[in-house]
């Protein structure tokens, strides 16, 4: 039988369109809450019954809707937020004019709204089977008669300025959709997570969530805190999480990209296993896998590969540089310059994590459970520069000799350097974050004390020295024009295609900077020079490493600098691990002091090269609490 092509009825079209926007109770709440935010509301209350399946109410104190425009709010693609010439300059969370029409297509709706100018509020109720509802969902059939009927349905009501929208019988017109909803606990959990996220972004607004008349979430008291965002993070994620985050505050070179928020410190393993990073772009909550990858990339060399850092980031970029109109839920966006976004995110997170003053601050639970691994960020940012730079020239390290005055490839003196005599100097521990060393325990842990802050530190000497050495080598690499190269008597030859040869030859100068010298002869490429650092460790095959670098360059020639640096730093990691102070090495107080000063001088020294903590901090207040003083 031949099937004739026909145009669907307006009702069917509306239900299909609604399915793109409204998937569950959360979809309804998200659209209504975002509308409330767009209306400049400062109070938003969400109430649900049966996890929103039977009843949803969103009430706000926003600008309201005028009586004459009330019916227009339910017509698809009718909106006050967008002009025809501003489709790529969207300043609101909602802009398509689809939300209320989509909700109306799959439920019954009552709206009560009042503007500042009107004497009282107005109420309009639309049931799922009414002619008025069908007419609104098909804007081509709104006749004068229908308009009069809708006007007759609008009745006066008492309420303050703002809007309340009640949704009943979700998916009653499309009962098959109910089969795809999760159980009530799962649906309610999703709603609560959204409320948490949106509350973080809009700190000038109070949010409440009720379920079956029970208050689940309330931000009202946060308005009295100096740092509303920090207090909301405490309320949502708890003190343990909040004590293990680093503040992000970044402005790009062009000042067009700004990133603020918080990220978990490298040595912290979140107990909230299912928690995901929360990302906002221009105030819009988004789910972007690329940004999550950029965040993880910023932790490279700071955490183990199997660990997942968490972030709460607010990214601000010019409106014209991001397209928010690519997904029905508006949770996915497209950037005009993804490379700039990558650089900004990586730099912002890396900058936040660079402080050496990230320490484990013990809690009672950790004390009584064998010091479980959870590490606390100390709030020492303002003092960082004074600690980091005070008198550092007066106490030049002889314990760790690799610096600008040493060739970066000369590692032979490292193991002997610690044996060298160090000029004794009396240090004022008020000038230094870690204070002065007191003693060494088990020839592995250094105990130091800062008399100015009354903080006690336990430093793991091997982990700390390993990180310091790596940072010194990386610093030297950054400031060096070219790595030292070992010329080969017998070149390494490998066959490659003509296209691959062109890629390699185009990157000749960059590769040479990293100590790789190549020549092309016939259909073979000859490696005639390699970085001298590759000769340092017997566990590393210089030939295999260079071939590996070239293969990576062929696959992605645009990243030749990153590929080369990553390969060199991998070698540095192993050099630092094998050459640093070992467990069992007895240190004098002068040697311990030099190590502490180096930890203060370089970035990322709060964790070793494998992501483990290098020290913990025990505060005076913590000791008082433990001893019930």
TrEMBL record:
Keywords: DNA damage, DNA repair. One of its GO terms (biological process) is mismatch repair. GO terms for cellular component: mismatch repair complex. One of its GO terms (molecular function) is ATP binding. The keyword Magnesium does not apply. Transmembrane segments: none annotated. Gene3D superfamilies: 3.30.230.10, Histidine kinase-like ATPase, C-terminal domain (3.30.565.10), MutL, C-terminal domain, dimerisation subdomain (3.30.1540.20), MutL, C-terminal domain, regulatory subdomain (3.30.1370.100). Residues 233-354 form the DNA mismatch repair protein S5 domain. Residues 437-587 form the MutL C-terminal dimerisation domain. Signal peptide: none annotated. Belongs to the DNA mismatch repair MutL/HexB family. PANTHER family: DNA MISMATCH REPAIR PROTEIN MLH, PMS, MUTL (PTHR10073), DNA MISMATCH REPAIR PROTEIN MLH1 (PTHR10073:SF12). This is DNA mismatch repair protein MutL.
